[in-house]
Amino acid sequence: MRKTECLAMILAGGQGSRLGALTKKIAKPAVPFGGKYRIIDFPLSNCANSGIDKVGVLTQYRPLELHNYLASGSAWDLDQKDGGIFILPPYAREKGADWYQGTADAIYQNLNFIDLADPEYVLILSGDHIYTMDYSWMLEAHKMNKAEATIGVIEVPWEEAPRFGIMNTDKTGRIEEFEEKPAKPKSNLASMGIYVFNKNFLKKYLEEDAKDETSSHDFGKNIIPKMLQDKARLYSYAFEGYWKDVGTIESLWQANMDLLQDEPPFDLKGEKRIYSSTQSMPPHYIGPDAKVKNSMISEGSMVLGEVENSVIFPGVRIGKGVKVTNSVIMPSTIIRDGAVVDYAILAQNCEVAAGAKVVGELGAITVVAEGETVVAEDSGKQAG
């Protein structure tokens, strides 16, 4: 394996329990998004657009569909001879097989892979955030600051700051303090879960953390505080743009709805476009009596009823007399004649029977799990 300047490691093994029924059968990064994408398309596309061509994807929870989706990495131009996507599940070592115990432990278990790539820098990313970003600018800032670690941050509303890990910095951007979900935050600079580390610096702290039996083996809880305690050169990198952690039903629904604006807050098809590995399908069909307003209708779908303010994925069938509003309908779901769907997310391969209702409300989106059928007397399952 040739030497590379920057190796990306994407943490994509999370169960995503807060997404409830949507992650019963698939890992959170594999959850469909935006009509033709999956959540993991964002960090992968960002890597490709940033000139980072060697990417390790750390998988764990229900990885089969995610592995199949990633395939050779050709969809993101990451199938090069000396680069590419490398799937990194937990594996049997001399002491037996262990699940990844935390974000830091996941990287620690793959230090042999990092050593083999021998990068100068390691970029660590979450596989479950929606945003477009050129990581090369962050890497350049890391070099200019002579930093040992750089953490991507974004300003969040002050009332939301207690939900995040908060970075307190001096006027140069050097991080002086890290607060994990503080009740009374001193700043509103939230960690984005994006890190650039000097390789040897990172390796030292991971090896020390692995020996600590009291550690949670987590970057936010253990590694970053220890680096700050040692007065290491940690800097923030301020990101200005759209970024959303789609870790809850409501945030995932809202991120889909954000795409329906006349001028969406982030661009899927611009110079730094988002790529996907979706299957090629025939054009969508809109029936003669259908009504479609302010919606995304993906290829391979058929609409015979009414669709408003909704995102419709490939292969969806919407029957006559159906009303779909304020909803996200994932691939190959069938909504039969006369059904009503409002403020809902329907996972892939669902069926809503004729005359059935799946109705939620703003702030309490109703979810139907993959492969389930909603019959006429069933109002669906409330998101928990």
Describe it for me?
By secondary structure, the chain is α/β, with parallel strands linked by helices. Helices cover about 20% and strands about 30% of the residues. The strands form eight sheets. The chain has a seven-stranded mixed β-sheet with strand order 5-4-1-8-13-10-14. Strands 16-19-22-25-28-31 form a six-stranded parallel β-sheet, with no helix packed on it. Strands 18-21-24-27-30-32 form a six-stranded mixed β-sheet.
Number of DSSP helical runs: 8
Q: Per DSSP, what share of the residues sits in E-state strands of 2 or more residues?
A: 25-35%
* Largest sheet features: 7 strands, mixed
Mean pLDDT: 90
Q: Compute the CA-based radius of gyration.
A: 22 Å
Structural class: alpha/beta
Strand order of the largest sheet: 5-4-1-8-13-10-14
Shape: elongated
List unreliable stretches of 5+ residues.
Answer: 378-384
Q: What is the CA-CA span between the terminal residues?
A: 46 Å
Extended strand count: 32
Helical proportion? 10-25%
